[in-house]
Queue: 2 jobs
Job 1
Amino acid sequence: MRRAMILTLSGALALLLAVPALAALAPGAKAPDFDLVDTAGNHHSLQKYLADGQIVVLEWFNPDCPFIVKHHKLHRTMDTTFAAVKDQGVVWLAVNSSAPGKSGHGAERNAKAVEEYGMTFPVLLDPTGAAGMAYEARNTPTMFVIGRDGLIAYAGAIDDDKSPQVLGGTNHVAAALAAVLAGGKPDVAETKPYGCSVKYAD
Amino acid sequence: MPRLRQPVVPHLLVPLVHVPLLLVLLACGCAREAGPGPRARDGAVVVELLTAEKAAVPGRILTLGWRFRIDAGWHLYWHGVSDTGVPPSVALTLPAGWEAGPLRWPAPSRHVSPGDILDHVYVGEVVLLQTVRVAADAPLGGFAEIRARLDWLACSQNCAPGSAELVLSLPVERHAGPTPDADAITRIYQSLPQPLPEGLATVALTGTELSVAVPGAERLEFYPLDSGGPLLFAPLVAPLADAAAAGGTLRLRLRERDGQVGPVRGILYVRSGDGAARSYEMNVAAAPVAASPKEGP
């Protein structure tokens, strides 16, 4: 049922050429492709979503990270932000790069999280960390908005309050989506993500 | 910086026990531990308020130490640039007319996790120092209450937010002698990063590379502070690779943006051949990247 991620040529190149620059792959970069399986066994291919003309939001996810709890349980930031744009050709995907044995790993734990948090989008499993490393994701959550052109339009934090409880006054992803949906570019295309570390394999 | 935060736990009203010098109020979820200063445990961390003076003296400075004792395997975060985590915060409530200074942060240590994740953290124990100026008109003979809400994020294999409320009641007197913690607080103060002494290091910017040389040093590390602005949070291209090295030279590649590099602010850690370690404040102003010769006139 589950299948390891197929790293396509662009993804592999991004991985090879990755120079640690910021805390995540920067705006303007081509979004590395992926084909990952969600907790229900469905495949999600970035290339396919882009071919369908969708705008794609990626959220690096770990159900056991307090900052994910902040935005999924204490506040419903992610689902609320998605709800406002889901009828406008926007796909939202959570990606979990926790390695086996690490916090938040596995289909079962994440299926439970989808239910517990009432999530309106799937959690894709990336246990090898290949997708996470291709995107240079270091935090849960790290957010990416990928335009219809396949380029990263926004990379960074969901909002501007990095505490584990208090919601920020500015939702950077909502602002970036509004700009991209209007055919423009976000005023703020890059911020420093905040949160837990992504739990890659040792 | 002191700031208001919404409490995450419902407050349990604990009746205050009146002890002449020190009082402790614990937030729900914390366990009480015996000891001289107000203290509380939440999760992997015990917080305690130390003072250097036995009493508050009108118009004078009080020195506070926020001690975090961190269980083995866990860490707290420094206030500078890290890939993950958030630093602890202290929100103080002081009597009218009292003024709090900023938190003073000891030098952190580097913590690298799989996936090239670089954090600057504290393990074991850290004491953040803070001075408070007592109001000049604080009434002598009474008691003054210092109330603090502490919030922190502790991480191990997973992360857990923690919080506590500490209350210290101090007599207001004309003179104050030192507490048993005064010497420890002085030592911590003396070990804080100091201004970089003239002549200790040669700091040179060539194009986009900042070289830092300290002759005779056995190891150098640089811990970046936020240089301000939403896009200047990461002045270094590769802090993981560049900002720690054996020997007396660091070569820091700087991010270029709009034809400019820097500013670079942070802490320079220097370990000399005899094993002695010191930390210094290092500040390099923003500079234009010189145009290459063929672009020049």
Job 2
Amino acid sequence: MLLNAVIIILREVLEAALIVSVFLALSQLLNRKLWWMLIAMVMGFAGAYVYAINLSQISMALEGTGQEVLNASLHSLIFICLLIFMISVPHQARPGWRRLNLFTIVLAVIIAIVREGSEIILYIKGFYGIPELLHPVLIGGAVGAGIGLSVGVFFYYLLVNMHKRSGIWLGYLMLLLVGGSMIAQAVEFMIQADYISASAPLWDSSHLVSERSAIGQLLYALLGYEATPAPQQAAAYFGSIALLVIAACVSFFFRSKSS
Amino acid sequence: MKARFFLWLLLVLSSTVAAGPPVIEIEIKDHLFYPDEVRIPADTKVKLLVKNLDPTAEEFESYELNREKVIAGNSEVIIFIGPLSAGEYPFFGEFFPKTAQGRVIVE
Amino acid sequence: MKSIRLFLLLALLATITLVNFVALLHGYQSSMEKAQSLFDSRLESTARLIAAANSENAVQQTIAEQQTPYTYFQIWDSGGKQLLTRSRNAPELMPGELSEGFHEINHASYRWRNFIYRDQHLNRWIVVAERSDVRYSLAEEVVLESLLPIVLAIPVAALIIWLAVGVGLKPLRQFADQVRHKRVDDLSPITLEHVPHELTSVVSNTNALLGRLEDAFQREQRFASDAAHELRTPISVLKVHLHNLRKRLGDEDEDISLLKTGIERMGHLIEQILALYRSSPDQASVQFEHVDLTKLAQQVIADEFMTIEQKQQHISLEGETAMIEGNRFALETLLHNLLSNAHKYSPSGSDIRVSVAQKAHRVELTVEDSGPGIPASEYERVFERFYRLQGDRHDSGELGCGLGLTIVKHIADLHQADIQLGTSSIGQGLSVKIIFQQEEPH
């Protein structure tokens, strides 16, 4: 039970911690107030709780595909936040853009925590009635959360203490990967809910890096790694990254022109 | 005329029913999948109806099938899988992976 | 990075947590694998043992004596059609397919790992099974035992790291404290109890810089006061010559009165420059003493009384004994400058009010006049060097060089006092309030 709890909590915490730490570091690098992040985290956990207690109703909605549709929407929303964030960064000087930029950060952090936090809450809640299992689960959860948060802390300090320019670039790069992984997961949920019909996997790299292995899990959290992706997923992944890059470049280009 | 229309309606209805993917029921009880082995034909889409009879939540997960879905305690969900090529596709309950194990055999 | 201490705490804790838990996870996984293969080989040998012990190949009763609830066995005939014998808790059904090797099945609300063994000798199948969860619980217990101290140790480690980093950063904090609490005029070197290797160059460079700064200040001060001092003599000589010239040519000559104004202005400028350098807050050699501000004001008013009387201005002083720490000469200059400003820029017959008020931990000196005052928008600029209200078209026709309030500001800074400009309570003139902080009684 213990190792299992470690891995489940670690997976969820790692994903959320990466997004939150990158945004936290970028906020710091872009001279943003950090208390917004605290508010976002509290709201995220509140949202996660609401999601968790309403899970069965959500699942049964839309002919049993409510969960997939909601998750796909959450992932897409994070992607949209990233897109607007990327577009608005070059226009920092204007207060309207600046507010929009802050709003996207806060919203993305809230959604990321709702999505990952709800699974943690559901998982832990299941053990309330089973005291002999609750103990190892809580310890395992603490270990998993500890590892996940430590990675987050590392990323945060890595980005903040890097040369400011390279810190922003690395932060951007990570946001691109997060964006790609979000859309790929959204597509996966739409396939699962049969809104998009699946085709045969584009490749099978499970013999190279299995998704079960620790490296596979880490790559999944970092890059959205899939050993056997559907072609639609891969297309969505690379397409969304390209869209982010193009949007950021166009926005940057217009800023240079107007100023 | 009326009879023909009725027949036509019946045909349409039956064809839509027939067009829907086959449903396979899996139950989760005491953190175990029943059945723990599901056989499905190759290159066919299948609808899994997973009923969680335990009070605890469970997450149906399969790396090979690229599926993950949380099932709250005492509730049921629908998961579409396939079309798949022949082979063995293990799945497990992420919350109780030591016991909740199963596999889809495509033949 | 906001705080080195916080950064070190978080970075070190994160490292400890990561390294510990990754190592632990790895250990857990490999020991689980080891245990698994051990359990498997035990299961296999149990199957062979049962085969050897059950030499009869006929249908038997269920074996009632159950060893443990965690294991069971079945013996099937060659076709897998008939269950020959089984332990009491074993299922009566076939465990899926009969093929030699390890399999996992569900039975009696548990997951079981079974080993199916084909007994070649008696042509039958032997199935031995063990509950999966029991296998994990042992390894889990071991890991839990080793994990708990680590989980509990992390807050302790955090506390120790916090304290250790605090101790490690002590020289830096001392250094920062000394720099922060240095008086503006104190250029003496910084001394630390123990100078760690990392700070030696910082401390020695800072001290060298302070030394050079002190030399530079002394040179500048000496130069300025020497120059001004040297200029005093020729001015006095000029005054003597002017006096002689006036005696010879008489007072009516316009050129001579212009010359007289010029020489007076130059003399005033030199005196003010001297005062400016003596009162500069960077001054290293200012001696502080107990000064009664009211008494000093009385004395300065007495000095200036003749000049004030000439313009038929009325001056008043209110206040009781108010002791502050200050430099007597500088404070005198400050009062002189404030009084002479009030005197110069107020019309004849106006009022000048000086008050010294003792407040809690501070003394407020206020000089008010009933002149035209200064617009609030000019408050900032009047302290600039050589700045005069309305520029050179100053309509007061008074002698001035625009250094008076600059000197006042310097002296106030030297005493760490605040200046507030405002409208006076008499008429609409200027009110200058200087707030001296009194040191708390020890």
